[in-house]
Amino acid sequence: MKLAIIGTGYVGLTTGTCFAEVGHHVICVDNNVSKVEALKKGKMPIYEPELEELILSNVSAGRLHFTTDLNEAVAKSDIIFIAVPTPPHEDGSVDLSYIEAVSQEIAQALKPEFGYRIIVDKSTVPVSTGGKVSQVIERYAQGAVDVDVVSNPEFLREGSAVKDLMHPDRVVIGADSQRAMDMMKRVYQPFDAPIVEVDLASAELIKHAANSFLALKISYINAVSAVCEKAGADVNLVAKGIGMDKRISAHFLNAGLGYGGSCFPKDVKGFIHIADQLGAPLNLLKEVETINAHQMTHFLDRVREKLWVLRNKKIAVWGIAFKQNTDDVRESVAVKMIKALCDEGAEVSAYDPKAMETGAAALEGYPVRFCPDLYSCAQDAEVIIVATEWKEFAMADFQRLRKLVRLPIIFDGRNLLNPDNVLYAGFEYHSVGRRSLYPETAEGLA
Ligand code: UDX
Ligand code: UDX
């Protein structure tokens, strides 16, 4: 089918590429000229595993195109997906100005002679946005156009977006007309995934309800980790024990520094605001936010307690991205923590396998020493902090690191490392929701 994607970011670019991969003809539109020019030259604007080779192969197959010309894309496509940002306002409400602007542009690009078109909200939007998009299309179109608006929320996780898109647990389609539903089912037929056919409002709510539930699950195990710390229990073992119950499942029970990223923080805030506006407040989610914020501050309290004073201390931070396998630093807890450490006068060195450029931009103005690898990052460190769950950190050579650091102290914010490796090399090992561990022999400490 002929598809257009408006907004070629983490969501739009990956979605459009996977649509092309299964045989659709896709035009990806973006108003960022340099991004489109880069893509036309085969230069990637983001890091996402497996994406680059898929883009290159589908461009050469003639199924994937990039343009800034929205009119051309609308004229040539049966279905137009909107994947532009829906960032939070200060008060937590969702900023729909990009959605509204793009809906106007699409309306002005439509012509009655084009025939039937479907406009799809791929972006995470508050319930009832679909109706507002329909109004904008009607109001700004030149003449009577035959259009249905559909909600088709995305569930991809950054760092595994291609896998999640090619093999989704389910595809949610919210439509108020059978004609639109049938056409959307044809788009997803090649993916061989269960399709949940619902009305528009339910589809919009499914997205906020899903992300908020996942965030709640993370805050739940993080709250339990604080209890484990006091009780001398091990939160990883508690998570293992409860996660074997299929009704709970082991996924998303990793205690740590809390969730970040461009989705959970904004979608929890957004859902709280939507529920308040509807008169059915979700106070539960306010507690999810409180717990999440506390994870990082409590962790820093423990580091400060260990080092007594943070000012002028050499602190190595491993990880800048908001999670492993991505270069995305939006709402990254690692970035927040590095800023807090710098504000306290610590001398911070930082390393990330992929988020060095995006990290340096996010930390502009902060006196951070960016290092090319985790060993130079650890040079003379008085503490090493693991802030992002990159597998590379768990594979480090801790014997070699022991000779580089000034004090053999590790604070693992993601319970990522194997304590035996760390202790054997003579480090103290502190993590989340578990007892602190010390090397057998005193020689481990300076
Ligand atoms: C974002 C949010 O993260 C996600 O929750 C929401 O569902 C969709 O928008 P993401 O792909 O991560 O998804 O955003 P981003 O990487 O910033 O990409 C958005 C793209 O849209 C950018 O490339 C931007 O240049 C483009 N854009 C923005 C337009 O083309 N037109 C606009 O009017 C605004
Ligand atoms: C999330 C949702 O998973 C996805 O379905 C939705 O489309 C977009 O938002 P994403 O934010 O890309 O995806 O990554 P995810 O793997 O969900 O991690 C989000 C944050 O939670 C990261 O900061 C991660 O470190 C943290 N996390 C995740 C935990 O702290 N513990 C966990 O068990 C899982």
Number of domains: 2
| Strand-pairing-aware structural class | alpha/beta
**How many DSSP helices?**
18
The radius of gyration over CA amounts to: 24 Å
The CATH superfamily of the largest domain is NAD(P)-binding Rossmann-like Domain
CATH architecture designation of the largest domain: 3-Layer(aba) Sandwich
- Order of neighbouring strands in the sheet with most strands: 3-2-1-4-5-6
Low-confidence stretches: 442-446
Question: Which overall shape is indicated by the principal axes computed on the Cα atoms?
Answer: elongated
| Largest β sheet strand count, sense and barrel closure | 6 strands, parallel
Helix content range of the residues, please? Answer: 40-55%
The total count of strands amounts to 14
Mean pLDDT: 96
Through-space gap between termini:
66 Å
CATH topology of the largest domain: Rossmann fold
Fold blueprint:
Blueprint: E1 2-6, H1 10-21, E2 25-29, H2 33-40, H3 51-60, E3 64-67, H4 70-76, E4 79-82, H5 97-109, E5 117-121, H6 129-140, E6 147-151, H7 161-166, E7 171-174, H8 178-188, E8 195-198, H9 200-231, H10 235-243, H11 264-278, H12 283-307, E9 314-318, H13 333-343, E10 347-351, H14 356-362, E11 369-370, H15 374-378, E12 383-386, H16 391-394, H17 398-404, E13 409-412, H18 419-424, E14 428-430
Parallel strand pairs: 1-2, 1-4, 2-3, 4-5, 5-6, 7-8, 9-10, 9-12, 10-11, 12-13, 13-14
Helix pairs in contact: 1-3, 4-5, 5-6, 9-11, 9-12, 11-12
The protein binds uridine-5'-diphosphate-xylopyranose (2 copies).
Residues 154-158, 211, 214, 218, 252-254, 256, 259-261, 263-264, 322-323 line the site of one uridine-5'-diphosphate-xylopyranose.
